[in-house]
């Protein structure tokens, strides 16, 4: 009898373990946003013929920004299918970690949400013998402002109002400033709960860059990876912020568009001064990136985004992620693979993959320069 | 001849003659092995401490802020400014809340299992409580963020209304309950199993005679517990609590998921905000540059020292109480 009871308990313990194990696995899978809202995975656009493998061989390690994770994963899948025998391994960690790994010489290229800082370029000269680290804009994307207000389906905001909301100056949803931007919408007097990232993040940096550029009077804080404004609440990671916005009535928060579309969170249309408010979509983000100027010199294509663009249908709250490589002095064993892989990602086929997955392609004019820079890599 | 006899006795004690013995060589090997393991442990600990101290020194030498009093963590910036005041406060306060909630409940469960519950119920109940320890902390974090936080809205309003005069429970800031108080509740649940199971073991060790003597004097069950079980188990419960406190101080993922961190010290525990050492390390590590990581290591070293202090204090308390408890009866 006693034995039986013991084994039953053991079985139930095992069951509990299995359940918690399954939960852990689901938790790990929660940031997979490659699927569309209808639950199907779109077929990859690239036919194997578009990809030139050239002399690519062996294993290529890369690391960095998690913002471009889903895009890189699709590229890697298509690329490896076309070039058997080559293995590309992108570790999606964070921009900071990617650049540290790049400057230690352990990866072929790094993904980063922000261009290399001068001191990081200095450091890269040790790794790139005879050259230096350069930024190649490869993936664009809109940062969405997700909101959850009972009874409100559509919300238009301009940069100054957004700054005041996140700055704890506007405290209720029926504030005059918001009402003025949304004629005909009944706004409740719910308290605004603004959510930002609690971890240092490239997404935060891009949002604050936008607010600083588009609403300098309302946003006195420096643009940085670390959130600087008072008030509001914080959550960890884009997934964490999206989860809070989905859960809390009266909330607003920022995250990459894919988190909004995969969870059915409504997003703010930006009032940029154009004829009509602009929705957060991949196409609209591309239009805004087209207004960017190249800030880097030579092969370095670091972009200076125009956050104040009033172009029709341009969504200026965008994020551009770079691939960071050496212009000269790449490691001989990985150079052919880096060239061939980046050649593919910058190609028409490679950029088309982006639009199908909630990202924004790099506009043609800049993209042409990226291709040229890739072909010159040494 | 006379000189060899004592040697013979020394080398061949009767015990070593038993079947399967390896004789003196086995003794020597085992002694060397255990000595080696002991020394290895000390070497590992010393090298970890040396590494942490070395990296921490790099960070501290370049810190533009005051490490002890600065209310900010901007270690990857140029120049770096960071301080542990908020983290120390948050770590201590959330752990205190956890202990205040968990210890009485844990002692209650332990007493119920050891002295009140029918045997058929006691074993499964003990098992279920122990199972709580097997749940990974990220699961507690997800459960906390998605279930516990919204559920606590009502309790927070109630505490604010009736206990707001205490200052501590005065909720001055709107927002969901991503506060140190919520973290404390979550930590309390997480440390329940360790405190419960150690306390239960101790309560089961109470000499039968003590309890029977008390019963013979006409004590009720509660009086038995009060005059024989609790005094006997006191040092055990204290050490169990310290084990739990150790987990609460160092808990990372659950806190990082549930708390809305901010670099402000506030005794309004219902307001969102605050931070703990482990949570801050988890949040900042990813995007930190090499120097930023050194700064995080420095904060980790403080947590290490804090844990050492707590354990040391616990040892002192236990050593002092031992004389008065039944432990050496």
From TrEMBL, chain A:
First and last residue of the signal peptide: 1-27
GO biological process, one term: phosphate ion transmembrane transport
InterPro entries in UniProt: ABC_phos-bd_PstS, PBP_domain, Phosphate-bind_PstS
Recorded superkingdom: Bacteria
One annotated GO molecular function: phosphate ion binding
Binding-site residues for phosphate, renumbered to this chain: 65-67, 95, 113, 201-203
Keywords of this entry: Phosphate transport, Signal, Transport
Cellular component annotations (GO), alphabetically ordered: ATP-binding cassette (ABC) transporter complex
PANTHER family in alphabetical order: PHOSPHATE-BINDING PROTEIN PSTS
Name of the protein: Phosphate-binding protein
Automatic annotation (TrEMBL), chain B:
Biased composition (Polar residues): 1-10
Positions of the UniProt region annotated as Disordered: 1-24
InterPro entries, A to Z: MetI-like, MetI-like_sf, Phosphate_PstC, Phosphate_Transport_Permease
This protein's UniProt keywords: Cell membrane, Membrane, Phosphate transport, Transmembrane, Transmembrane helix, Transport
GO cellular component, one term: plasma membrane
Spans through the membrane: 38-60, 80-113, 125-149, 179-199, 248-270, 295-318
Keyword Transmembrane attached: yes
Compartments, record wording: Cell membrane
Domain of life according to the entry: Bacteria
Record-level Gene Ontology MF annotations: phosphate transmembrane transporter activity
Record-linked Pfam families: BPD_transp_1 (PF00528)
GO BP terms, alphabetized: phosphate ion transport
PROSITE patterns: ABC_TM1
Domain ABC transmembrane type-1: from-to ranges: 88-314
Membrane association type: Multi-pass membrane protein
Family: Belongs to the binding-protein-dependent transport system permease family. CysTW subfamily.
Function noted in UniProt: Part of the binding-protein-dependent transport system for phosphate; probably responsible for the translocation of the substrate across the membrane.
Name recorded for this polypeptide: Phosphate transport system permease protein
Organism: Streptomyces subrutilus
Lineage: Bacteria, Bacillati, Actinomycetota, Actinomycetes, Kitasatosporales
